Amino acid sequence: MSSKARLRQRGVTMIELILFIVIIGVGLAGIVAVMNFTTQRSADPVRRKQALMLAEALLEEVELAKFSWCDVSDPLAGDDNPASAVTSAAGCQALPEGWGPEAGNQRPFDNVNDYVSGPNVENQAFGVDGKLLDADGNPLPLTGFRASVTIRPDRLGSLDSRNAPIATAEVLRITVTVNYDGQSLSLDGYRTRYAPNSL
Q1: pLDDT for residue 25 is more than 90
Q2: Which of 58, 72, 105, 128 is the most exposed, having the fewest neighbouring CB atoms within 10 Å of its CB?
Protein backbone atom coordinates (compact mmCIF):
# COMPACT_ATOMS: atom_id res chain seq x y z
CA MET A 1 0.00 0.00 0.00
CA SER A 2 1.26 3.43 -0.79
CA SER A 3 1.67 6.15 1.80
CA LYS A 4 -1.10 8.18 0.12
CA ALA A 5 -3.59 5.37 0.58
CA ARG A 6 -2.63 5.03 4.21
CA LEU A 7 -3.20 8.75 4.77
CA ARG A 8 -6.69 8.55 3.26
CA GLN A 9 -7.68 5.67 5.54
CA ARG A 10 -6.48 7.38 8.64
CA GLY A 11 -9.32 8.20 11.16
CA VAL A 12 -9.50 9.87 14.55
CA THR A 13 -6.82 8.78 16.96
CA MET A 14 -7.61 7.56 20.43
CA ILE A 15 -6.07 10.72 21.98
CA GLU A 16 -8.21 13.00 19.80
CA LEU A 17 -11.33 11.05 20.73
CA ILE A 18 -10.55 11.26 24.46
CA LEU A 19 -9.87 15.01 24.21
CA PHE A 20 -13.18 15.50 22.36
CA ILE A 21 -15.11 13.62 25.08
CA VAL A 22 -13.38 15.59 27.86
CA ILE A 23 -14.11 18.95 26.23
CA ILE A 24 -17.78 18.09 25.60
CA GLY A 25 -18.11 16.69 29.16
CA VAL A 26 -16.71 19.87 30.73
CA GLY A 27 -18.99 22.04 28.60
CA LEU A 28 -22.10 20.01 29.49
CA ALA A 29 -21.18 20.01 33.18
CA GLY A 30 -20.93 23.83 33.08
CA ILE A 31 -24.30 24.17 31.35
CA VAL A 32 -25.99 21.81 33.84
CA ALA A 33 -24.44 23.72 36.79
CA VAL A 34 -25.74 27.06 35.46
CA MET A 35 -29.22 25.62 34.85
CA ASN A 36 -29.29 24.10 38.35
CA PHE A 37 -28.18 27.41 39.92
CA THR A 38 -30.82 29.35 37.96
CA THR A 39 -33.59 26.91 38.81
CA GLN A 40 -32.81 26.95 42.53
CA ARG A 41 -32.72 30.74 42.69
CA SER A 42 -35.72 31.53 40.49
CA ALA A 43 -39.25 31.80 41.81
CA ASP A 44 -41.57 29.09 40.68
CA PRO A 45 -44.21 31.05 38.73
CA VAL A 46 -47.00 28.76 39.92
CA ARG A 47 -46.03 29.24 43.58
CA ARG A 48 -45.79 33.02 43.10
CA LYS A 49 -49.22 33.07 41.45
CA GLN A 50 -50.65 31.03 44.35
CA ALA A 51 -49.08 33.46 46.84
CA LEU A 52 -50.57 36.42 44.96
CA MET A 53 -54.03 34.82 44.90
CA LEU A 54 -53.80 34.09 48.64
CA ALA A 55 -52.73 37.65 49.43
CA GLU A 56 -55.53 39.12 47.30
CA ALA A 57 -58.17 36.91 48.92
CA LEU A 58 -56.98 37.63 52.46
CA LEU A 59 -56.71 41.37 51.82
CA GLU A 60 -60.24 41.38 50.42
CA GLU A 61 -61.51 39.51 53.49
CA VAL A 62 -60.04 42.15 55.81
CA GLU A 63 -61.18 45.09 53.67
CA LEU A 64 -64.76 43.79 53.59
CA ALA A 65 -65.00 43.77 57.39
CA LYS A 66 -66.90 46.65 58.99
CA PHE A 67 -65.07 49.69 60.37
CA SER A 68 -67.68 50.83 62.86
CA TRP A 69 -67.49 52.82 66.08
CA CYS A 70 -69.23 50.13 68.12
CA ASP A 71 -69.03 46.36 68.18
CA VAL A 72 -71.93 44.76 66.32
CA SER A 73 -73.34 43.44 69.61
CA ASP A 74 -73.65 46.98 71.03
CA PRO A 75 -77.34 48.06 71.01
CA LEU A 76 -76.46 51.36 69.28
CA ALA A 77 -74.17 49.82 66.65
CA GLY A 78 -76.59 49.79 63.74
CA ASP A 79 -78.42 53.00 64.53
CA ASP A 80 -78.21 55.07 61.36
CA ASN A 81 -80.96 57.49 62.34
CA PRO A 82 -79.25 60.90 61.96
CA ALA A 83 -80.83 62.17 65.16
CA SER A 84 -79.48 59.37 67.36
CA ALA A 85 -76.60 57.90 65.32
CA VAL A 86 -73.32 57.16 67.07
CA THR A 87 -70.66 59.58 65.85
CA SER A 88 -67.68 58.36 67.89
CA ALA A 89 -66.57 55.42 70.02
CA ALA A 90 -67.67 57.40 73.09
CA GLY A 91 -71.27 57.17 71.87
CA CYS A 92 -71.41 53.38 72.11
CA GLN A 93 -73.66 52.05 74.84
CA ALA A 94 -71.45 49.19 75.96
CA LEU A 95 -68.82 47.98 73.48
CA PRO A 96 -66.71 50.49 71.55
CA GLU A 97 -64.43 48.85 69.00
CA GLY A 98 -60.80 48.36 69.98
CA TRP A 99 -57.81 46.42 68.72
CA GLY A 100 -58.17 42.64 68.69
CA PRO A 101 -61.17 40.36 68.48
CA GLU A 102 -63.80 40.24 71.18
CA ALA A 103 -64.25 37.04 73.19
CA GLY A 104 -65.74 34.29 71.05
CA ASN A 105 -65.27 36.24 67.81
CA GLN A 106 -63.97 34.14 64.90
CA ARG A 107 -63.09 34.63 61.26
CA PRO A 108 -64.42 36.28 59.31
CA PHE A 109 -64.24 38.94 62.00
CA ASP A 110 -67.01 41.50 62.31
CA ASN A 111 -64.65 44.49 62.34
CA VAL A 112 -61.43 45.28 60.47
CA ASN A 113 -59.43 46.00 63.64
CA ASP A 114 -60.29 42.53 65.04
CA TYR A 115 -57.67 40.96 62.73
CA VAL A 116 -54.74 42.32 64.78
CA SER A 117 -53.92 42.79 68.45
CA GLY A 118 -52.67 46.34 67.99
CA PRO A 119 -51.47 48.93 65.46
CA ASN A 120 -48.28 48.05 63.55
CA VAL A 121 -48.32 44.54 65.06
CA GLU A 122 -47.86 41.74 62.54
CA ASN A 123 -50.33 38.96 63.35
CA GLN A 124 -50.35 35.45 61.90
CA ALA A 125 -54.11 35.77 61.60
CA PHE A 126 -54.94 33.31 58.86
CA GLY A 127 -53.75 29.93 60.06
CA VAL A 128 -53.41 27.37 62.81
CA ASP A 129 -50.42 25.05 63.36
CA GLY A 130 -48.68 26.33 60.23
CA LYS A 131 -51.68 25.55 58.00
CA LEU A 132 -53.57 28.35 56.26
CA LEU A 133 -57.33 28.40 56.79
CA ASP A 134 -60.05 29.92 54.64
CA ALA A 135 -62.59 32.35 56.12
CA ASP A 136 -64.78 29.45 57.27
CA GLY A 137 -61.92 27.79 59.16
CA ASN A 138 -61.27 25.01 56.64
CA PRO A 139 -57.61 24.14 55.90
CA LEU A 140 -56.43 25.17 52.44
CA PRO A 141 -54.80 22.42 50.34
CA LEU A 142 -51.53 24.36 50.09
CA THR A 143 -48.27 23.74 51.89
CA GLY A 144 -45.35 26.02 52.56
CA PHE A 145 -47.33 29.29 52.78
CA ARG A 146 -47.61 31.56 55.83
CA ALA A 147 -49.76 34.68 55.88
CA SER A 148 -49.86 37.63 58.24
CA VAL A 149 -51.67 40.94 58.48
CA THR A 150 -50.56 44.31 59.82
CA ILE A 151 -52.97 47.22 60.29
CA ARG A 152 -52.06 50.77 61.23
CA PRO A 153 -53.75 54.17 61.17
CA ASP A 154 -52.50 56.06 58.12
CA ARG A 155 -53.10 58.99 55.80
CA LEU A 156 -55.22 58.91 52.66
CA GLY A 157 -55.82 62.17 50.83
CA SER A 158 -57.00 64.79 53.30
CA LEU A 159 -57.73 62.20 56.01
CA ASP A 160 -54.74 61.87 58.33
CA SER A 161 -54.99 59.27 61.11
CA ARG A 162 -51.29 58.41 61.43
CA ASN A 163 -51.11 59.32 65.13
CA ALA A 164 -54.73 58.59 66.04
CA PRO A 165 -55.90 55.77 68.30
CA ILE A 166 -58.36 53.28 66.81
CA ALA A 167 -61.22 55.08 68.58
CA THR A 168 -60.74 58.16 66.39
CA ALA A 169 -58.89 56.81 63.32
CA GLU A 170 -60.60 57.50 60.01
CA VAL A 171 -58.15 55.59 57.76
CA LEU A 172 -56.46 52.23 58.25
CA ARG A 173 -53.71 50.81 56.06
CA ILE A 174 -53.90 47.02 55.77
CA THR A 175 -50.82 45.03 54.74
CA VAL A 176 -51.16 41.31 54.01
CA THR A 177 -47.88 39.43 53.64
CA VAL A 178 -47.57 35.89 52.29
CA ASN A 179 -44.27 34.07 52.86
CA TYR A 180 -43.36 31.04 50.75
CA ASP A 181 -40.19 29.21 49.69
CA GLY A 182 -37.93 31.81 51.32
CA GLN A 183 -39.69 34.64 49.49
CA SER A 184 -42.26 37.21 50.53
CA LEU A 185 -45.13 38.99 48.78
CA SER A 186 -47.05 41.92 50.33
CA LEU A 187 -50.21 43.74 49.28
CA ASP A 188 -51.53 46.97 50.81
CA GLY A 189 -55.06 48.25 50.98
CA TYR A 190 -56.94 51.03 52.78
CA ARG A 191 -60.15 51.07 54.77
CA THR A 192 -61.96 54.27 55.65
CA ARG A 193 -64.82 54.84 58.05
CA TYR A 194 -67.26 55.65 55.26
CA ALA A 195 -70.30 54.09 56.98
CA PRO A 196 -69.50 53.59 60.66
CA ASN A 197 -73.11 52.89 61.62
CA SER A 198 -73.90 50.51 58.77
CA LEU A 199 -74.20 46.88 59.84
Answers
A1: yes
A2: 128
